[in-house]
Amino acid sequence: MSATIEQEALPKLTAKDFASNQEVKWCPGCGDYSILKQVQTVMPDLGIPKEDIVFISGIGCAARFSYYMDTYGMHSIHGRATAIASGVKSMNPNLSVWVVSGDGDAFSIGGNHFIHMMRRNFDLNYLVFNNQIYGLTKGQYSPTSEKGKVAKSTPYGSIEDPFNPSELALGAKASFVARSMDRDPKHLQAILKRANAHKGSSFVEIYQNCTVFNEGAFFGFTEKETKKERGLFLEHGKPLIFGANDDKGIILDGTTPRVVNFKEMGLSADDLWIHDEKDKIKASIIATFFDTSYDGTSFPRPFGVIFAEERPTYEDGMKSQIDALTAKKGKPSLDAILSGDKTWTIL
Amino acid sequence: MSVETNFKPQVPLIEADSIVIRFSGDSGDGMQLTGTQFTDTAAFLGNDLSTFPEYPAEIRAPQGTTAGVSGFQVHFGSREIYTPGDAFDVLVAMNAAALKVDLPKLKKGGIIITNTAGFDKKNLNLAGYPEGVNPLENDSLSEYKVHKVDVTKFTKECLNGSGLGMKEIERSKNMFVLGLLFWMFDEPMQYTIDFINEKFAKKPEIAEANIKTLKAGWNFGDNTELFATRFKVQAAKLPKGVYRNISGNSACAIGFVAASELSGLPLFLGSYPITPASDILHDLSKYKTNNVRTFQAEDEIAGICTAIGASYAGGLGITTTSGPGMSLKGEAMGLAMMLEIPLVILDVQRGGPSTGLPTKTEQSDLMQAMYGRHGESPLPIIAASSPADCFNTVLEACRIAIEHMTPIIVLTDGYIANGSEPWRFPAAADLKPIKVTRLTEPNGENGTLLPYKRDERGVRPYIVPGTPGLMHRIGGLEKASGTGNVAYDPMNHEKMTHERANKVEKIADSIPEIKPDSGNEKGKLCVLGWGSTSGSIKTAVRELIAEGHDVAHVHLHHINPFPKNLESLLKGYDKVLVPEMNCGQLVNLIRAKYLIPAIPYNKVQGLPFTTAELKTKILETLK
What we know:
Chain A is α/β, with parallel strands linked by helices. In chain A, about 30% of the residues lie in helices and about 20% in strands.
């Protein structure tokens, strides 16, 4: 039974074909439902046979994701999905590997694996559902919670600064950094496709609403009334424009970004900062549009692909080293390995 | 086996059946290399032998101090040798600190060869001798044969005009000592000359200097009349065959490569550097031409998790570590146990807890291997008993992991990991293939898939991602028996807990029954050992049997599950004595499982048992 023949003979798969027979058990209204739907929706378009897709997750609400996909999947341990995925890709680079994680799983207990994953650049997709709270353990602040967060374990407010995941990823040499949200299906689908198309570790931070413990954490960015004012939707080669009336833009003054009301100033869109997702330095500045203010101005939060530039992947490096050495030296027989190069004979 | 040298001895050659030499000096004095070269030559000449390298935890501990002493012990003989020896016949002391540290273990009447340059005022001070006291100049060493040689001076004179700098000249002084030892034991220099030429092929001036110094050492013994005796250790009557010298860590690496070849599964090692296990990572990283994938992970947890991923994806995933790393891997071992996938976890035990004695040996991780996880999570455990036995042990572990779909723990320790012995290695054709069975079609009724359906051994099928039609999810949450779907049902949890434990128990059906290594199957006393104590127990028990005592030696390789006949075997003895380099771990497993009043005998000094210690304890127990 050949996989290829079977695949060709079948009609095109639909989103439903990617839903497992397991009951989805997230809280009603959870942002995870939308993310699951968008992932299942884009899957048929990726052209990857179902049996070659593997979802690996750690622990947390988001991590239940792998049970709900009718692909191969492993629900593993807290923070370690990245490490397990690295082993999977090392052994079989042909698999399409998707790591699903939450903000605690990825940046707290899994922080070490996260940075090394970005650095090594295995070719996989790393989706982090960021809801700025611990959901499964019932409401403690997370490493992405805002300073001052009042939660179960911080009744008087958190005294910690949060991570800005995009900056963290760029600092760890990520080759693909993007941000999207549960409440914009089209945007999320587009970003998921971009992530899949990128060869390397594709990091996608997805703002996800936790209705029970952190309702509305991202409403400023996701709801119609404020979305255009507070969000900056990036597109490669397009100017940085935002605002309810598309009247605001960002220019780069030396190394300092400035928000300008460009229409009032008589500037054209072409005079603004044109997004170049391959420019690491500029991407690094955009990534700081988070809690950094320049000259007292707060900046809109960037969504879309902040940075994308391919570089060699770990598994390709591993394979080419093995291939090159084997071509040069040949494969020694097991007998040669057993005997080593110094032996003696007892007669 | 004849030894060819041009030398006609003027000094009488005395036959010895075995000799223990301790090379001792500063960590930078090259004692490990000197010892290894002497060992290799003795091995080529057909001696049986056992080595024990012992070095400080610091790479370059303060020079000249007792903390910085690095030693290499070799026991070679014309009879079978199972231990590096209790006490030394010859002590090479390159400085005052080395003498101070190792003198207590020199036999009375033993030979001391010193480098007098290492006994100047500064060195004596650093070694902690009182002001004005030099052991070479008072009568404190009157019970020994002391040879005072200014090795440093002779080396400098020998290399005068060689064009080498003072530092490089200094570094050659170990070769002078090695040459002298070769002369003393009537061993040829050729093997070391070949080694030097190969090692310094790109630096011929260094090669030449080392060879010149080596020969100068030999000639010094030959020309001066300082030495009254020389020794000859004839070749041992070892079984016929082709041999190599092997350390435990190298044997582990080769065992893993062999398992990969025999199973056809590509090997993946996820490992984080840790003493004394790192050499396995180093060794395996050289076998890339055999499709070996090594991954130096960001931490111990990533080491095991990447290995889990590799096994899940269809390879042979392994991870290597020592005690503290084992603790960090505990949660992931639980996952692998829950997933039921092949995985080998190798623990080269060292003195603990915490950083403890990282370069010293101990057997104190047995309880950790047995019980050191959350939940009910029994895992098979297998232990290696000697450097060469590490090969068989690792191969057996891989076989169990793959054929029984389970993580397995291999225990070795610093003593056998770094120690070496001659190994009559097998031919690849004589090694049994490892059977890999994979599911490629649904295994349930009406085309359903049951990833946790078990065969008669309790083993679930191996389903590799990429297999069409068999997509399924596995994970750390409790699973329904058969389907593997998440299940919180209380009765199912109990059922699955037993199913997982039974699978491990059933491994006992496929392992050989245990027999005494020496002695009878019934009798007064059984000395029950496991792991690296094998050589010392074997030597002690065989000597006592020869002396007419009713004692037997039983040595365990499989610790979980135990061989099926262990209980009946042990119950055939009046007493069971369990020597361990810990505070009593196997002894408690035996007592708990079989209700046998086994007697503990424990040592936690970071050092192996001596034969003498064991003999004393055995005789005391026999009374």
